[in-house]
Amino acid sequence: MNVLKEFQEAIEIEYNKNIQDFNEQEKLPMDERVAKGVSMINLKVEFELENKNIKSAKIICENNISKFKEGNSVILSNGDLSFKMDVFEDSADNFILKPNDWDSQYCYLSSLDYPKNNWEISSVHTDISTKMLRNTASYLDSNSEDLERAESLLNGKTKNSFAHFVDKIEVLNDSQNAAYLNAINASDFCLIQGPPGTGKTTTIASIVEQLIIEGKKIFVTAPTHTAINNCLDSISKVVDVKNRIIKIGEKASNKEIQSNEIVGKLSRLQHYRWTQFLEENKVSESYGIAIGATAYSLCYPVTKRLEGWEFDVAIIDEASQLSIPLALSVISKVKKVIFVGDHKQLDPIIPKGTDNEMFAESVFSRLARLYPNEINLLNTSYRLNEDLIKIPNHLFYNDKLVAASSTKVDKKNYQSSNYSDIFNNESHILLLHKTFDSQGRSPFEAKLVADLVFDLLQNNVELSDIGILTPYRAQVREIKKEVKKKIGRNISNPFENLFVDTVDSMQGQERKYIIYSMSNSHPLESMRRLDFFYSPNRLNVAITRAINKCIVIANYKIFDIKEDELKNHNEYQSVKFDLKTFCKYYDLANKIEINKETEDDW
Prior knowledge:
Layout: H1 3-27, H2 30-35, E1 39-50, E2 53-60, E3 73-78, E4 81-90, E5 95-98, E6 119-123, H3 128-142, H4 144-154, H5 174-185, E7 189-193, H6 200-213, E8 217-221, H7 225-236, E9 245-248, E10 263-266, H8 271-280, E11 289-292, E12 313-316, H9 324-331, E13 337-341, H10 363-370, E14 375-377, E15 380-381, H11 390-396, E16 402-403, H12 420-423, E17 428-433, H13 443-458, E18 466-470, H14 473-487, E19 499-502, E20 511-517, H15 530-533, H16 536-543, E21 546-555, H17 563-566, H18 572-588, E22 590-593
Helix pairs in contact: 1-3, 5-6, 6-7, 13-14
């Protein structure tokens, strides 16, 4: 692969695709844009104001089927009034927008006599990420040594040399210690594969602790702020000293570590300011520090967040979700990179159908393919018991994983008037039904989920121990609506503790009880996005979050895959292997069928 050429082309491909998608989306009739979840109309708005400056906007909408989620930027408009804002809260009770620090200066009402009804919300197109990646491409074009290093790594030609640090850590198991020592000793790069529950953040924390002791400057990144925050939170438990761990980002992006006093929070930290801090406090330049931020933070001078920093080591967590172009922002600026991920879990969102090698797979997948002997597999799951580990272990990990002795199979006797055969059964259940009601949102499955949650509560299970997953954001809202109907009388705000979200939002997390609503009545409904719905990696994430019980709810047609129905579809050949994985899952799962009496209707 010609890294610079492919990188430059990839940037323009993604930019042009985003422009094309956005323009096509804007040309659609409004009702189609609403149906696709990229616009909202007929909204009532309640503004929170401070001297005519908009602090927040509460959106009242009877039926929110949009794809907008917390953190998305949107345009709120009504006639001549138009404000760029971010989704601050998306819950069963509230949909609230707030301006970010930059856009707040433009969110201003000239008159308090503003319209309360008929507002619209639509998507925003921005090209700031393109500017940052173009900056990285320009940097590589001007720095031949760094380009050669990136070329070598991404073409399978880099050969590590190893130092001889041998001090193992007592709290780590054998596979974790092997990865830890490899990461410390490797000269150029390290690959750590962390399947579900195998303690990759614990391993990362130990690596960072040792690197800080050695006086290294470490850049910690991941595809999302949540993943970065979780990583820094874990590091703070072993590096319990202030001014050693810093998170770079706006306040809204620090939710998971807001109360963590060990992790410093700054919107930016140019290197000259850090040098001033060291001089004022009479601290040596060899002061070890870990700084967490998105990969874009290294695209200076387009961004000033970490301008001037030269890091000794970078750690990319969830590297299997990072695209190669974005990874180059890190690889180009840091000479040693530790990649931590699992290419059997979620992939990055990248353009499909291009010939560009950088969009063929994630950076972790490419490196795992090029350097199979460099993979350090963490093989002991502290989450999945011996029942729950069987299916994912066989489907995705060649039976190389083991359940830790500390995990226990749930043998509790559950009391339930309707679902005792579900709860008092194997740890993993595939619950099949024949109700055909879903268009990415299934009221039947949502009501079933609410009933299951109610039964768990009757058995003294805490809401915080339950996680409800689905592929679709519309189903998230449907489930929240039904759960609130079922238990809202007794619990005023159930979603403070009950996790209800898409599968993609759950990677890296766990709950004792997982309920997965597939919310799709027929494979033909997925014809537009076969690769999304029938993603083995998304299935793997969904069924590996549970500690006690995993209940998968699906229409039986999802697994009734007939080649004659699909063979002429333009995606079929590319997803043929994925469909077989779903069929294998069906064969391996313990199945319970409900509402069998409707079978004759179909």
